[in-house]
Automatic annotation (TrEMBL):
Cited InterPro entries: Nucleoside_phosphorylase_sf, Pur_nuclsid_perm
Pfam families in the cross-refs: NUP
MF-aspect GO terms: catalytic activity
Protein name: NUP protein
The keyword Signal is assigned to this record: yes
Length: 338
């Protein structure tokens, strides 16, 4: 049935349908640049239906397609959906890699480090009371939509959790982490200067950059500061109780970014109509461009230390290692074959 559809699509456009093995998803042009230049992805395909206002980048002999979605959850989901319905492509066998930069919790990792995400928690659909107007004994004004107080009991039901949590495929994520865990990531003098400030409270922040695994909170807000970082840690634990899913362990807030949950949601919707393998075929790699809170004693400011280029480099180094393996089919473990 599917092959009939490809033929129809091909007939309608007069072009053969392209069958990417891997789709690399980025949110803004600096995240795409290294893939284009260094994988390389030299062919450009127009993509006016996406929100990124960038051409798709393609390498037919590798079978790798890369896109810029535009920042924010709405741009990410609408762009992935537009690609999913684009008759030029058959995406039913593709593995997807979201590779971008993010804020890192200094209790989890450090700038220049990367993490393969295990679970994605939505932090955008919430109830909110301003801290000046909420009850005095509350720790935060950010409340789960199905409750009337922060982290309100009872614990989220499986249905509620399904709406706010995306579980990535443990075998695929662990395989990607295994492949990259001994990678040496660039360590800059500027990283060392910044991370020294986090001593002695934040041990993970003080380590050199490395490849980790963790959980992500997605919001459309560039938030920063210890209060909101405390919320993100508690929110992750609330939604990901120990033993609550295939990953088993209680949630550990690692990174903060915008597009991840939305991309997973779009892939699942495309899966329901037979156009992708859904979130099961998604890898999310985030590279830390900044900490989500300043070091102890330092004032909170919207203008934080930010290492965009270095983080894009780290995301490419770890991500491209995995993409090269994914396209060299024989080196993929048998049970990850589609
Ligand atoms: C595709 O990748 C191969 C191997 O890296 C490279 O030699 C070739 O030039 C690339 N082609 C395009 C169109 O980017
Ligand atoms: C989302 O996409 C629109 C349309 O391309 C663009 O104007 C807007 O700046 C994007 N939003 C963000 C946050 O990048
Ligand atoms: C990852 O590595 C661990 C330890 O070497 C191994 O037990 C596990 O099977 C590997 N997982 C995958 C999916 O490759
Ligand atoms: C997070 O949880 C801890 C431990 O229960 C609590 O002390 C803290 O006030 C909470 N912070 C926020 C912002 O919710």
């Amino acid at each position: 049935m599917l092959s009939t559809l490809w033929l129809l699509a091909a007939a309608a456009t007069g072009h053969p349908v392209l069958v990417p093995r891997v789709v690399v998803v980025t949110a803004f042009p600096p995240e795409l640049a290294r893939w284009q230049i260094r994988l390389p992805l030299n062919d450009e395909l127009p993509f006016p239906g996406g929100a990124g206002q960038q051409n798709l980048a393609w390498n037919g002999s590798l079978g790798v397609l890369a896109m810029v979605t535009g920042m924010s959850s709405k741009n990410a989901s609408l762009s992935v959906t537009a690609l999913g319905y684009d008759p030029r492509f058959d995406l039913t066998t593709a593995t997807w890699l979201l590779a971008g930069i993010a804020g890192v919790d200094p209790m989890f990792g450090t700038v220049g480090g990367v993490a393969w995400m295990q679970r994605l928690v939505d932090g955008t659909v919430v109830k909110y009371l301003d801290s000046r107007e909420m009850p005095q004994d509350w720790e935060t004004g950010w409340i789960p939509v199905h409750r009337d107080r922060p982290y309100g009991l009872p614990q989220p039901t499986p249905t509620e959790r399904a709406g706010s949590v995306k579980l990535l495929n443990p075998r695929l994520v662990q395989w990607a982490h295994n492949l990259t865990q001994s990678l040496e990531l660039p360590d800059l003098e500027a990283f060392r200067r910044l991370r020294r400030n986090y001593a002695p409270t934040f041990l993970p922040a003080m380590q050199p950059p490395s490849v980790q695994m963790g959980d992500l909170v997605a919001t459309d807000v560039f938030w920063t500061g210890p209060a909101q970082a405390g919320w993100a840690r508690n929110w992750t634990k609330y939604w990901l109780p120990a033993g609550g899913d295939v990953w088993g362990q209680q949630g550990v807030f690692a990174m903060s970014a915008m597009e991840d949950f939305a991309v997973a949601e779009a892939l699942d919707a495309l899966h329901r109509v037979g156009r992708t393998r859904g979130v099961d075929a998604l890898l999310v790699l985030r590279a830390a461009s900044n900490f989500v809170q300043p070091w102890p004693g330092h004032h909170v400011s919207a203008d934080m230390d930010f290492f965009e280029e270095a983080a894009c480099e780290a995301a490419f180094l770890a991500g491209s290692e995995v993409v090269r393996r994914l396209v060299a089919r024989s080196s993929k473990p048998a049970d990850l074959e589609v």
